[in-house]
Amino acid sequence: MKIEHVFFDLDHTLWDFEKNSDLAFQKIFTEQNITIDIDSFLYVYKPLNREFWRLYREEKISKEDLRYQRLKTAFDKINFSVSDKLINKIAIYYIDYLPHFNHLFNYTFDILDYLKEKYRLHIITNGFEEIQTKKMKSSNILNYFENVITSESVGVKKPNPKVFHHALKLANATANSSIMIGDSIEADIKGALNIGMEVLHCNFENEMIQTKDFNSIKSLIEIKQYL
Q1: Pairwise CA distance, residues 195 & 162, whole Å
Q2: In angstroms, how far is the first alpha carbon of the chain from the final one?
Q3: What is the SS3 assignment for 15?
Q4: DSSP letters along 113-181, please?
Q5: 164 contacts 192 by C-beta, under 8 angstroms
Q6: How far is CA 41 from CA 34, 80, 121, 203, in A?
Q7: Which controlled-vocabulary keywords does the entry list (predicted)?
Q8: Per-domain residue ranges for the chain?
Q9: pTM assigned to the model
Q10: pLDDT per residue over 67-106, tens digit each?
């Protein structure tokens, strides 16, 4: 069947999470007079954040634990003493500041302008409910999408098939008329494949991929080769 619906992930796919996150931390560290090298902190924090997000996605930790533990563990690893009060303050400020930085990946507007003339566009994201729409408003991409489906609104997270089925129902779409585009092989690609959707993997880090079960792109503009 012909593709009619394009579902995008948001963070690490359209919205440049790493760049925006770095800027949010720089602002917080400056305001709170946290006297450690920001690059040293981020070097330790980023892989920890990915691991805690994996645990959160697998329902092994709560949202509150994710927010606290990723910071606490990072500070502990660089031997920087910080109170729970300050950690909780940083966690709150981070969520407040993050959506106000609006860097997108190259060609985001080009590809959305191209796709909107041919397809109905939607977002499926595991990101926190309270900030995903803010991110999209701040970066001026919200108006491209008919539906923004967050895992919190469904009650489970990608790759759980319930998220994808809910998104398809909301969009009045079928799996075989839809494609999922995202960066996470586990959450986006395998999750969508498991319910019969077409997929396109965003491999902007040019990582080695062991399977040929799906196509990958290194830039958003390459989507034109498939749609």
Answers
A1: 10
A2: 13
A3: strand
A4: HHHHTTSEEEEEE-S-HHHHHHHHHHTT-GGG-SEEEEHHHHTS-TTSHHHHHHHHHHHT--GGGEEEE
A5: yes
A6: 11, 10, 37, 25
A7: Hydrolase
A8: 5-16+104-225, 17-100
A9: 0.93
A10: 999 999 999 999 999 999 999 999 999 999 999 999 999 9
Burial of 79 (0-12, 13-18, 19+ CB in 10 A): exposed
Query: What's the topology of domain 5-16+104-225?
Result: Rossmann fold (3.40.50)
pLDDT tens by residue, 153-182: 999 999 999 999 999 999 999 999 999 999
Scan for tokens 């109170």, then name that residue.
83
CA atoms of 90 and 32, how far apart (whole Å): 9
- Spatial neighbors of 205 by CB under 8 A, at least 6 apart, are none
Beta-bridge mates of residue 148: 123
- Give every CB contact of residue 119 below 8 A, 6+ residues apart in sequence: 3, 4, 5, 6, 227
